[in-house]
Amino acid sequence: MRSIQSFLFVILGLMAMLGTVASHNYADALTKSILFFEGQRSGKLPQDQRMTWRKDSALNDGADIGVDLTGGYYDAGDNVKFTFPMAFTATVLAWSVLEFGDSMGPDQHHALNAIRWATDFLMKATNKPDTVYFQVGHGQEDHNCWQRPEDMDTPRTVFAATIEKPSSDVSAEIAAALAATSIVFKYSDQAYSATLLSRAKKVFEFGHKHRGRYSENYAKPPGAVCPFYCSGGIAEDDLAWGAMWLFKATNYDHYYWNSAVNSSKILNHNLHEFGWEGKNAGINVLVSTIVNKDGATNKSDTDPFIQNADKFVCALMPESPTKVVYYTPGGLLKLQGVNFKHASLTFLLVVYSRFLKEANKEIHCGHVVVKRNRLIEIAKGYVDYMLGNNPMNMSYMVGYGKKFPHKIHHRGASLPSMDKHPAKIPCANNHFFHHSDLNELTGAIVGGPFDNDSYVDDRNTVERSEPTTYMNAPFVGLLAYFNRPPPAYI
Fold it and tell me: What is the pTM of this model?
C-alpha cells in the first residue's frame, strides 16, 4: 500500500510541476482564444465563418491605388489594418503551432486558418517589388470615429515603405511571419509553403538593403501613422528576428545566420523584451530551438544567445536578484503598459523550458538556482490569473467563465450587428458607447487590471478594456501547452 501511495504522490507531484492539473478548462479557453481572430477579420468572409455577427468589410481596400489590399486583420478595437502587429501576430501563431500544434486537437485546423488569413494579406502587401504596404486606414481619423467595420466612412488611406522611405522593421517582421508560416505548411501545403518562403527572402532583402524605420519616415502628418505602432528603437532586432526565422525555414542557410549574428551584436540591452516593438528575448529563445540540430551551427556560436536567454529568465523570476519586472499583489507579472501584453514573455518561458530539459540544464541567477519547472510555474500562474485566479475572481477573456468584461473597447462588439440593424450607423453616433456589448467577441482578452489588481468594466479605459490580436496570439500557444503538454516538453 505504501509503495502505491508513494507512486501516486510522485505522479501528482509531476503533474503539478508540469501544469497539467486542470484548475481551468484550458481546452475551452484555447478554442475561444482562436475563435477571437474570426471577429477581427477584414475583407470577404468565408462560408465557414463561425463568428456570424461579423460581416464583409473594407472590400475596396487598395482599389484607389490599383492594388488589392483586402483581407487581413483589424489590430484591436479599431478599423485600421496595421501590418506591423499583424505580422508579429502571425509569427507568434505560427510558432505556437510549431511547438504545440499537437496539443490543439481539432482547434489546430482553426489555428492554421487564423495564420493563413494574416499571411494571405501579407503576400498581397508585398506583391509589388521594393514596396511594402504597412497600413490601410488613417490612424487618427479612424480612432475618432466609433463605427462598425461594415459601415466605415473614414479614409482607407494606404501607406507604403519604398526605397526612398524604407521600413526595415516592418519588412523584417513580415519576413519572419512568412518564413515561420512556411515551416507550418511545409508538409500539408508544399506549394503555399514554397511561395511563402520565396517571398520572405525577397522582403527580408528589401528591409536589409534599405535601412530605416517607418516611424522615422512617416511621423508626418501627425496622427496618420504615428504614434500608432511606431517604435522608438532601432530596426536591428527586427532584422535579426527575421533572419533567424529564415535560417530555420531554409534548413540552415548560413547567410541568414550570419546576418542575424551581425544584427544581434549591438543588441546587448533590453534582453527581456518581446513584442511587436522589441524582439531581443524572442531571438535568443528561438536560437534555443535549433541548438544541436544537424546542420544548424556549433555550440560556440549559439552560446551567446543562450546566455542572453538565461538573463531573460532571470529578469522575470520574482526571486531573482536581477529581475526587472514586478508582480502585482495578486501575483500578476508586470513590466510596462497593459498587463496581458506580457503573455509573449511567458510564452517564451514555456518554449525555453524545453531546451532546459533537453540540455539537462538549470539557470543561475546570482545565488538563486532556477529549474525548468519554475518557468512552467510562472507561466501557468500568468495564464490562470487571466482565466480567473485573481482578486477580482473574474476572467479577462470574453466568453470564458461566469464573470468577464462586458464593455470592451471594440467597435464591432459594442454596436448592433447588421443582422439586427441593417441600416448604416454613422460615424458620429455614440449612442451605444456606454452600453454593454451587443455582440460577444468570444475569446477576446482585454488589456487587464490596474497595478492593484482592480478592474473597472468601462469602455473608456482603453488600455484596460481593449483586446488586440498580438495579445491573444501567445495565449494560443500557452493554452495549448497547458491543455496537454507535448511529449517533447514532459
Answer: 0.94
| Res 71: pLDDT | 98
Catalytic residue status for 409: yes
In a domain, 135, yes or no: yes
Instruction: Report which of 268, 272, 406 is spatially closest to residue 333, judged by C-alpha positions.
Output: 272
DSSP states of 184-215: HTTTT-HHHHHHHHHHHHHHHHHHHHS---HH
Grid cell locating 60? 475596396
CA-wise closest residue to 162 among 198, 225, 206, 224: 206
Rg (CA), the chain: 22
Task: With H, G, I as helix, E, B as strand and everything else as coil, classify residue 363.
Answer: strand
132/127 Cα distance (integer angstroms): 8
Q: Are 78 and 142 in contact (CB under 8 A)?
A: yes
466 among known catalytic residues: yes
**Amino acid, res. 86:** M
Identify the band that residue 37 occupies on the pLDDT scale cut at 50, 70 and 90.
very high
Catalytic residue among 301, 457, 458, 463: 457
Q: How many domains does the chain have?
A: 1
* Amino acid at the residue 21: V
Residue 263 is assigned to a structural domain of this protein: yes
CATH number of the domain enclosing 340: 1.50.10.10
Domain that holds residue 283: 27-44+59-489
C-alpha cell at 4: 502505491
Distance CA 73, CA 136 (A): 11
Indicate the pLDDT class of residue 19, thresholds 50, 70 and 90. Answer: very low
> Active site residue: 78, 236, 277, 437, which one?
78
Give the CA distances from residue 99 to residues 104, 297, 474, in Å, rounded to whole numbers and listed in that order.
10, 21, 12
Q: Which of 24, 138, 208, 409 is catalytic?
A: 409
Q: For residue 16, name the pLDDT band (cuts at 50, 70, 90).
A: very low
Give domain status of residue 10, yes or no.
no
Q: Quick check: 30 and 484 in contact, CB under 8 A?
A: no
Distance separating alpha carbons of residues 125 and 428, to the nearest angstrom: 31
Q: Which three cell numbers stand for residue 194?
A: 514554397
Q: 399 by DSSP, 3-state: which? A: coil
Q: Is 342 a catalytic residue?
A: no
Q: Cell for 164?
A: 526612398
Give the span between the Cα atoms of 478 and 481, in whole angstroms. Answer: 5
- Amino acid letter for position 291: V
List b or e across 80-101, with b for residues whose CB sees 16 or more CB atoms inside 10 angstroms.
Answer: bbbbbbbbbbbbbbbbbbbbbb
For residue range 96-106, what is the model confidence (pLDDT) as tens digits?
Answer: 999 999 999 99
Q: Is 384 a catalytic residue?
A: no
Contacts of 7 (CB under 8 A, 6+ apart): none
Residue 343, phi then psi, degrees to nearest 5 = -60, -30
Distance (Å, rounded) from C-alpha 155 to C-alpha 360? 56
AA letter at 121: F
